[in-house]
Amino acid sequence: MLKSFDIYNQNNILKIIVALNLLLVGTGSLLYTNRLITKLETREQQYVQLYAKTIAYLVDPNHFDSGDLTFVTSEILEANRTVPAIYVDPNGQISKPLNIDFPDNLTDNEKEQYLRQRIVDMRKRHPPLVVEVGNGERGLVYYDNSNLLRQMTYFPYVLLAILTALGVLAYLSFSSSRRAEQNRVWVGLAKETAHQLGTPMSSLMAWVEYMRSDPAQFDESITDEIEKDVRRLETITARFSSIGSIPTLKDEDITDVVEQFTGYLAKRISTKVKMSMTSQLPHGETVKINKLLFEWVIENICKNAVDAMKGVGELRLNILALPNHEIAIDITDTGKGIPKASMQKVFTPGFSTKKRGWGLGLTLAKRIVEEYHNGRLFVKSSEVGKGTTFRIVLNADKEKKAVEPQPSVKEA
């Protein structure tokens, strides 16, 4: 019975297998085509040798007899219609060039120079064939590869390039398929979580109403705090429900959104973390966002920062205007920083430096900012032992008229 195969955990092995197969195919194709090229080259050399012998037969008077030479001139000499060849007689004169394509409009002297240059090029690729013409004199036949042979020479490299492209496409296809499947899993998990939270929340709201009905027994301030937490659970449920769906974006005063949420968050993180917010935007500057999801982004980054500081330190948020109608939100902590080796992994699903946690907070934040809000989220700067700054970049409302900036500072 076959054991189940986990395609996600074994993806590195699959990549190696695919790479080895491509390497074997490429190597086999290279060896095979090289063998064909060697055979073709040998055959073409035989053609040239036949050409050389024919010239020797025609030039040497001792070879003449009363026979008809029509066969020699019409069939043997013209049998080669593909291999470029040039005969140089014992006096160094060029004669009987074969399958040589001259450029247009050349004079006789220019053709002579062109053939001399072709001879130099031919000598680099093949040694000339010696033609015995009698009386101890020798001519030389220079030749080059035919077009077919040149095509065959480059064929293995073209094949390898094709196989490489196919390999890259296969890898991209595999990676894309794997990411799509993972996305479906996360979306399904998020929606199922939201569904499961619905029943206990309804029950908790009923208990809140029951406690409000008897203020003498239940302190109203306690009931208010419980209700806030239940509302918070409703917000979380709504966030999970929106995963995988296209969110509705509305014009929101970005300073007010961040200020209100950081005020809420400050009461629910460590009291040893000093949290502050600064805005350098004009009053009423709006950005198209989904408030529910964007607050989730701020929460994930801030909670990640608090964890990096181990609950003790300073957390600063700064909102500022950038060129090209963009707005930046910098979130800076005084935590342990991010090593350079881990800088590219912080947004990878499952990456976490904590003993507990799924490593999804920053991944979700980046997806919400970049896929839903057409913005950017990245690590602006980080220094080990000193802290990290995450930057969110969003597009401002271009139609809104510019107003003088009104800096505001709020300490949560």
Describe the structure.
The protein is of the alpha+beta class and 412 residues long. It has three domains: 136 residues, no CATH class; 73 residues; 146 residues, Heat Shock Protein 90 (2-Layer Sandwich), CATH 3.30.565. Helix content is 50%, strand content 18%. The chain contains eight helices and twelve strands. The strands form three sheets. It has a six-stranded mixed beta sheet. It has a four-stranded antiparallel beta sheet with strand order 2-1-4-3, with helices on both faces. A two-stranded antiparallel sheet has the order 5-7. A hairpin with a 2-residue loop joins strand 3 and strand 4. Helix 6 crosses helix 7. The longest helix is centred in the middle third of the chain and has 66 residues. The chain is elongated. It starts with 10 loop residues before the first helix and ends with a strand. The N terminus is likely disordered. InterPro entries: HATPase_C_sf, HATPase_dom, His_kinase_dom, HisK_dim/P_dom, Sig_transdc_His_kin-like_C. Its EC number is 2.7.13.3. This is histidine kinase. It catalyses: ATP + protein L-histidine = ADP + protein N-phospho-L-histidine. GO terms for molecular function: ATP binding; phosphorelay sensor kinase activity.
